Amino acid sequence: MTLSERDKKHLWHPLTQHKTSPDTLAIVKAKGVKLWDESGKEYIDGISSWYTSMYGHCNPYITSKVAEQMQKLDQVVFSGFTHEPAIQLSEELIKILPSNQEKLFFSDNGSTSTEIGIKMALQYHFNLGNERKVMLAFEEGFHGDTFGAMSVSGLSVYNGAFEDHFLEVVRIPTPNGENNPKVLQSLENLIKENAIAGFIYEPLVQGAAGMKMHDADGLNAILRTCRENGIIIVADEVMTGFGKTGKNFASEYMEEQPDIICMSKALTAGLLPMAITSCSMKIFNAFYDNDIAKGLFHGHTYTANPLACTAALAGIELLNSEEIQQNIQKVIHSHSGFLEEIKDHPKVTNPRQLGVILAFELNVEMERYGNLRNKLFQHFMGNGVFLRPLGNTIYILAPYVISQEELQKVYDSILSALEIF
Ligand SMILES: *Cc1c(COP(=O)(O)O)cnc(C)c1O
């Protein structure tokens, strides 16, 4: 029996309706930008396995660091104890975060990092005795699958069973330049009508919504209005963090800095699951008290796991290296050339790029293709390229270490899709 056949007996996959989904593909090996399936076919990982493996899979520098750490200290309770990997990581991460960020709170995945960001914003006001319980979010945002994260996510078509239990959330559209004054006006109206505790948003790029990009000036004006009105600013950089937008964090494109930043995905370079919610002293100080109940009573068993911290530390070292920074510039430059090439194609709508993220919508009659998204996916995989379209949105978010030749292979498979569909 193949792995794909054995898989079916006991495994329940995420985001999958098993009755109608095609079989899962078994991957047996990964190296650099490539994945191999059990039949030996290779694929370029054009989405860095959900934006995690930005320095390449099984990166020898990162794996050797983690292997070393693994012989020394594998796991210890982080409540009442500490260790060098977490301390070193804190020192290095603070250096690359926006300058107001001072404290790091660990968890295990992107959803818990935003859950903690939301809890920090709500408890900040609770501790100060403010009656503020409403969260503000963008329409079509995505922040994860735990209850708080689901509540603030605008993309909740499959959340029907849980909606009665959600937090109270009000929403504004994303600013696109043209609509900036209107968005600000609706924000001001919402502020008058609701006791808003915090604003959570994906800065500049909404990943799950289909790599939708919005206007930095418009976002900056929103953040300024939030700050003037005592609303805690929570940037969800789970997808955008660690270099993808051309800066270490997308928040660097705005003047107003967030009070809280959520990180995961590329944080550990695709090696181990971990997340961090960072915050400024203003937030931390609201929890710092003789009253024990004012603390943040949230904690996961694997908090600040030494191996995950070591992977993150090695990832940041690579991110800071001249080699990776040059690679990032090369990918940005190459994407710009490709966008120029396809932007006037009749089937290409809304071509866009920020940093190493390139996206556009394929403008074809959806009905003609039954399930267009699956057909596109099969087309790319058939070409040995792992791209995972979102509806009719095609996007590339490849590892920084991708070569020009491999990039060209990804572009070629997109060009042939433009011919075929
Ligand atoms: C992926 C993602 C999350 C959720 O992270 P998980 O690790 O999948 O729980 C939250 N926010 C954003 C912006 C994401 O892209």
UniProtKB/TrEMBL annotation:
<feature type="binding site">
    <location>
        <position position="265"/>
    </location>
    <ligand>
        <name>substrate</name>
    </ligand>
</feature>
<feature type="site" description="Participates in the substrate recognition with KAPA and in a stacking interaction with the adenine ring of SAM">
    <location>
        <position position="15"/>
    </location>
</feature>
<dbReference type="GO" id="GO:0004141">
    <property type="term" value="F:dethiobiotin synthase activity"/>
</dbReference>
<comment type="subunit">
    <text>Homodimer.</text>
</comment>
<comment type="pathway">
    <text>Cofactor biosynthesis; biotin biosynthesis; 7,8-diaminononanoate from 8-amino-7-oxononanoate (SAM route): step 1/1.</text>
</comment>
<dbReference type="GO" id="GO:0051537">
    <property type="term" value="F:2 iron, 2 sulfur cluster binding"/>
</dbReference>
<feature type="binding site">
    <location>
        <position position="236"/>
    </location>
    <ligand>
        <name>pyridoxal 5'-phosphate</name>
    </ligand>
</feature>
<dbReference type="GO" id="GO:0005737">
    <property type="term" value="C:cytoplasm"/>
</dbReference>
<feature type="binding site">
    <location>
        <begin position="110"/>
        <end position="111"/>
    </location>
    <ligand>
        <name>pyridoxal 5'-phosphate</name>
    </ligand>
</feature>
<dbReference type="InterPro" id="IPR015421">
    <property type="entry name" value="PyrdxlP-dep_Trfase_major"/>
</dbReference>
<dbReference type="GO" id="GO:0004015">
    <property type="term" value="F:adenosylmethionine-8-amino-7-oxononanoate transaminase activity"/>
</dbReference>
<dbReference type="GO" id="GO:0009102">
    <property type="term" value="P:biotin biosynthetic process"/>
</dbReference>
<dbReference type="InterPro" id="IPR015422">
    <property type="entry name" value="PyrdxlP-dep_Trfase_small"/>
</dbReference>
<keyword id="KW-0032">Aminotransferase</keyword>
<dbReference type="GO" id="GO:0030170">
    <property type="term" value="F:pyridoxal phosphate binding"/>
</dbReference>
<dbReference type="InterPro" id="IPR005815">
    <property type="entry name" value="BioA"/>
</dbReference>
<feature type="binding site">
    <location>
        <position position="388"/>
    </location>
    <ligand>
        <name>substrate</name>
    </ligand>
</feature>
<dbReference type="Pfam" id="PF00202">
    <property type="entry name" value="Aminotran_3"/>
</dbReference>
<feature type="binding site">
    <location>
        <begin position="300"/>
        <end position="301"/>
    </location>
    <ligand>
        <name>pyridoxal 5'-phosphate</name>
    </ligand>
</feature>
<keyword id="KW-0093">Biotin biosynthesis</keyword>
<comment type="function">
    <text>Catalyzes the transfer of the alpha-amino group from S-adenosyl-L-methionine (SAM) to 7-keto-8-aminopelargonic acid (KAPA) to form 7,8-diaminopelargonic acid (DAPA). It is the only aminotransferase known to utilize SAM as an amino donor.</text>
</comment>
<feature type="binding site">
    <location>
        <position position="299"/>
    </location>
    <ligand>
        <name>substrate</name>
    </ligand>
</feature>
<feature type="binding site">
    <location>
        <position position="50"/>
    </location>
    <ligand>
        <name>substrate</name>
    </ligand>
</feature>
<keyword id="KW-0949">S-adenosyl-L-methionine</keyword>
<keyword id="KW-0963">Cytoplasm</keyword>
<keyword id="KW-0808">Transferase</keyword>
<keyword id="KW-0663">Pyridoxal phosphate</keyword>
<comment type="similarity">
    <text>Belongs to the class-III pyridoxal-phosphate-dependent aminotransferase family. BioA subfamily.</text>
</comment>
<dbReference type="InterPro" id="IPR015424">
    <property type="entry name" value="PyrdxlP-dep_Trfase"/>
</dbReference>
<protein>
    <recommendedName>
        <fullName>Adenosylmethionine-8-amino-7-oxononanoate aminotransferase</fullName>
        <ecNumber>2.6.1.62</ecNumber>
    </recommendedName>
</protein>
<dbReference type="InterPro" id="IPR005814">
    <property type="entry name" value="Aminotrans_3"/>
</dbReference>
<feature type="modified residue" description="N6-(pyridoxal phosphate)lysine">
    <location>
        <position position="265"/>
    </location>
</feature>
